[in-house]
Write a structure and sequence with these properties.
Layout: E1 2-6, E2 14-15, E3 18-19, H1 21-37, E4 42-46, H2 57-73, E5 77-80, H3 87-90, H4 94-97, E6 102-105, E7 115-119, E8 122-129, H5 134-141, H6 148-164, E9 171-177, E10 179-180, E11 199-200, E12 210-214, E13 220-221, E14 226-228, E15 245-251, E16 257-264, E17 271-276, H7 278-283, E18 294-299, H8 308-315, E19 319-324, H9 334-340, H10 346-358, H11 364-387
Family: Belongs to the SbcD family.
GO molecular function: 3'-5' exonuclease activity; endonuclease activity
Subunit structure: Heterodimer of SbcC and SbcD.
Amino acid sequence: MRILHTSDWHLGRSFHRVSLLDAQAAFLDHLIATVREHEVDAVVVAGDVYDRAVPPLAAVELFDAALHRLAEAGTPTVMISGNHDSARRLGVGAGLIRGAGIHLRTTPAGAGTPVLLSDAHGEVAFYGLPYLEPSLVRAEFAVRRASHQAVLGAAMDRVRADLAARPAGTRSVVLAHAFVAGGQASDSERDITVGGVSAVPASVFDGVDYVALGHLHGSQRISERVRYSGSPLAYSFSETDHRKTMWLVDLGPDGRITADERIDCPAPRKLARLHGRLDDLLADPALTRHEDSWVEATLTDPVRPPEPMARLAVRFPHAISLRFAPERADGLSSGSYARRLRDRDDRQIAEDFVAHARGEGPDARERAVLGAAFDHVRTDLTRREAAG
């Protein structure tokens, strides 16, 4: 059986306030084209379909169109909710659209009830484990400790029990949305440590043939049979070096993976992280290749230059993130700032803050403004105290 494994669409998400709806629509076009071109037997979507519990209307329309196109392609699709999704909202109408070959798994109670799909070699049982928040599903799984490992372990016990009752040779696929130990995270995944330590060992998933994971945005193998597809688009500059793909996996008649391929996803624009002084970034010929990229620039100028973003945009019109990491003498380093406040009066602290934030202290005019401001505050406080 040929399976296309994807996850973490995050429909409705933007990239540093730049809308990605067009890019997400292009990805879904690519998904449908891949299904047809590679004669995919089943699509699995391992959670975080939307970027938030109440997605914008445009994202809902995009999702609705994707479901219709998958149904028209005649390709069964199994989909779970992730930690960004509202399981209740995503699961609305699940019973009705099941007849169209779209199988939504959004409730923990259904963990041990598979979607059964067949090929020439028999049945494959697809088990959907939606994101399981330990404190919310602890009672459902009757676990003593509200931890990710406990609830996922209990859900997998149901999977293994159901699988054991099926005919010998039944192959199995599990969809799960979780942080599995050994996985490499990025800056764009929402933390799921609430309810206990987030990482679970890969051994939790023992006993099944393929585990299609969602949550981490980088495509990666935890083991040969346990994999993350990653997100189809980059959602933070920490993903600059990611290769955005989907897994195309062939599950053989004995449950072993007989072939696999990473199918590249279309990128709306390359990402670049630049680091250096502003004048150097504007003049360096080696950076020509990044002039059409989305750029995050970290400026190291000792003194913050005027209008840095406007100046960057002249050469890098898609610069969308600006950071500062000034090269400074030890006396102005951030590590020594707290120590430098000791035994300083308010005015000296204010002047020190200007030097700390800007890289150089206030000039005579600015010191006069600061002095006048502090004098005004002291006068006002004295008047208030006198008034009682």
